[in-house]
Write a structure and sequence with these properties.
CATH topology of the largest domain: 2,3-Dihydroxybiphenyl 1,2-Dioxygenase, domain 1
Strand content: 25-35%
CATH class of the largest domain: Alpha Beta
Shape: globular
Radius of gyration: 16 Å
Number of strands: 7
Largest sheet: 4 strands, mixed
Helix content: 10-25%
Low-confidence stretches: none
Strand order of the largest sheet: 4-7-6-5
Distance between the termini: 21 Å
Number of helices: 3
Order of helices and strands: EHEEHEHEEE
Number of domains: 2
Structural class: alpha/beta
C-alpha cells in the first residue's frame, strides 16, 4: 500500500476553494458550488470534500472540530528562510489566520503556522535550501 493523497472534509466549499486557490496558490479548476475538488499539488492528491455529501455517501453523521484545531497539519515547503517570511505575510494579508509568526527553531528549521477558514493548521517551513526528500 502507498500513500495516494489526503483530503479535508469541509463545511463551506466556496470559502475553502477561494482560500486554497487565491491565498495559497493551489490550482483549482472546479466551481465553488462543487461537491468535491481533486487536485494534484507537487505529486500529491489533495481533496476537498463537502461534509454533508460525505455524510450522505457513508450514511453516517460525524463530529467536527470548531475553531483553530490541532487535529493535524498540512506542511508546505519553500526553499529559503526569506520565502517563509514572505509567504506568511502574504497569507496573513490575504485573510489567513495567524497562529505562529515565522521563527527559526533550535534545530535549524524556519517555520510558521497559519489556519485556513475552517481552523486547519498549515505550516510553511524551510531548511534554507531547495527541497530534497532524501534530506528527510
Amino acid at each position: 500500500m502507498r500513500l495516494d493523497g489526503f483530503g479535508l472534509l469541509v463545511k463551506d466549499m466556496g470559502k475553502m476553494i477561494r482560500f486554497y486557490r487565491d491565498v495559497l496558490g493551489f490550482e483549482i479548476k472546479e466551481a465553488e458550488d462543487t461537491q468535491n475538488v481533486y487536485l494534484i499539488k507537487d505529486g500529491t492528491l489533495f481533496l476537498l470534500y463537502g461534509r454533508n455529501d460525505f455524510e450522505k455517501m457513508t450514511s453516517r453523521k460525524y463530529d467536527y472540530l470548531n475553531g483553530v484545531n490541532g487535529h493535524f497539519e498540512i506542511a508546505l515547503y519553500v526553499d529559503t528562510f526569506d520565502e517563509v517570511d514572505a509567504e506568511y505575510a502574504k497569507a496573513i494579508s490575504n485573510g489567513a489566520e495567524p497562529v505562529l509568526a515565522p521563527t527559526t527553531e533550535p534545530w535549524g528549521q524556519r517555520t510558521c503556522y497559519i489556519a485556513d477558514p475552517e481552523g486547519n493548521l498549515i505550516e510553511i517551513a524551510s531548511w534554507n535550501k531547495p527541497y530534497n526528500s532524501k534530506d528527510l
